[in-house]
From TrEMBL:
Organism in which the protein naturally occurs: Vitreoscilla stercoraria
NCBIfam families: hemH
Binding site for Fe(2+): 208, 289
Gene3D superfamilies in alphabetical order: 3.40.50.1400
GO MF: lyase activity
Pfam families, per the entry: Ferrochelatase (PF00762)
Keywords, alphabetical: Cytoplasm, Heme biosynthesis, Iron, Lyase, Metal-binding, Porphyrin biosynthesis
Catalytic activity: Fe-coproporphyrin III + 2 H(+) = coproporphyrin III + Fe(2+); heme b + 2 H(+) = protoporphyrin IX + Fe(2+)
EC id: 4.98.1.1
Family named by the database record: Belongs to the ferrochelatase family.
Pathway listed: Porphyrin-containing compound metabolism; protoheme biosynthesis; protoheme from protoporphyrin-IX: step 1/1
Protein name in the entry: Ferrochelatase
Subcellular location: Cytoplasm
Length: 338
């Protein structure tokens, strides 16, 4: 077997490509489609840090027999005519950023890739190379760095590069959780959705969780989330005590970072916190975890526990201030290339 990929002899030019990355999503909201997606995702040791000999029998046994069906039912609740929200929004973000560079008459090609499923980073880099693009900037759309999301995305990039003979120039951005434009886009967005911001008992900032042992081993994710929340509260003119940072989407039996969003939704009403707004700063696009888990199930859970008002604020998605921030962040990272 060849050690490196066979490819046509071709000249890579100074042309620039930008690749936006997100996690990936099943092609259809059906167990048969969710299963291979979960298998690829949960086999990544960045996501589940266990030796294959221990984890694979559990994954292929209990998890892949039950979870695809349950997950598919959840996907069905949020699926759109155009497809999975995560993919539809990523496509719209890509198009909006491409339009910006076109309007500026800059020769920058914008596309997107998924860490798991399609289109893969390898496919998209090959696609860029076919167009002669020799300078590629990869932007994982996770504001806060985590090994399990950002690291996993960049692993896929580097693994592909290691198989290439004719490598392009590469730049990446590891995180942007403190970026002033990101904070201000969120602040503006929250003010639009919550004109009576001060009338809520609490504003909950809910981030995707990670296992506590990742943090204990040096993953900066939790600290980066807390930093984003603090800057956002400050920008909104809210006391830190008025805002709660919590972590959602717990998976498996191991200890995950605390506090858990799900536990909070049960306990807050009992402490007299009955009116809340929930926003997910760590997700650049609405997806299963925000739309089903937070907007639908979270609301039902909070109300069942005695809460009276629950407002879900959508993710930044294609909000114009957010697209402008992304364009300015990308332009900054392309300095010297364009
Ligand atoms: C050990 C399990 C998981 C870790 C660690 C994890 C980290 C992590 N994930 C995201 C972003 C997303 N995760 C999404 C779905 C999802 N996540 C897990 C598990 C872990 N995630 C599972 C099993 C699933 C699939 C759905 C399910 O069965 O519950 C998604 C949404 C995908 C979609 O199709 O809409 C996103 C986005 C981050 C940012 C992160 C680490 C910080
Ligand atoms: Fe996840
Ligand atoms: Fe979930």
């Amino acid at each position: 077997m060849a050690l490196f990929k066979k490819e046509p002899q071709r000249t890579l030019t100074q042309k620039v490509g930008v690749l936006l990355m997100n996690l990936g999503t099943p092609e259809r909201p059906e167990a048969a489609s969710v299963k291979p997606f979960l298998k690829e995702f949960l086999s990544d040791t960045r996501v589940v840090e266990l030796p294959a000999a221990v984890w694979q029998p559990i994954l292929r046994g209990a998890i892949l027999t039950r979870r695809p069906k349950a997950s598919a039912e959840n996907y069905q609740k949020v699926w759109t005519e155009q497809g999975s929200p995560l993919a539809v929004i990523l496509q719209a973000q890509t198009a909006a950023i491409q339009t910006y560079f076109q309007a500026k008459k800059l020769d920058v090609t914008v596309d997107y890739a998924m860490t798991y499923g399609q289109p893969s980073i390898a496919t998209q880099i090959e696609h860029f190379k076919q167009q002669g693009i020799g300078r590629i900037f990869i932007l994982p759309l996770y504001p806060q760095y985590s090994g399990s999301a950002t690291g996993a995305a960049l692993d896929k990039l580097y693994a592909d590069l290691m198989k290439q003979r004719n490598m392009p120039s590469i730049r990446t951005l590891r995180s942007y959780g403190e970026h002033a434009g990101y904070i201000s886009a969120m602040s503006q967005h929250l003010r639009q959705h919550l004109p009576q911001l001060h009338t809520y008992d609490r504003i909950v900032f809910s981030y995707h969780g990670v296992p506590q042992n990742h943090i204990d081993a040096g993953d900066p994710y939790q600290a980066e989330c807390l930093q984003t929340s603090q800057l956002l509260a400050q920008h909104l003119g809210l006391d830190n005590e008025h805002c709660i940072t919590a972590f959602q989407s717990r998976f498996g039996r191991a200890k995950w970072v605390e506090p858990s969003t799900q536990n909070l939704l049960d306990t807050l009403p009992k402490q007299g916190v009955k009116k809340i707004a929930v926003f997910c700063p760590g997700f650049s696009a609405d997806c299963l975890e925000t739309l089903e888990e937070i907007a639908i199930a979270g609301k039902a859970q909070f109300e069942a526990a005695g809460g009276t008002e629950y407002t879900y604020v959508p993710c930044l998605n294609t909000e114009s201030a957010w697209i402008e921030t992304l364009c300015s962040m990308i332009s900054n990272e392309l300095m010297g290339w364009i």
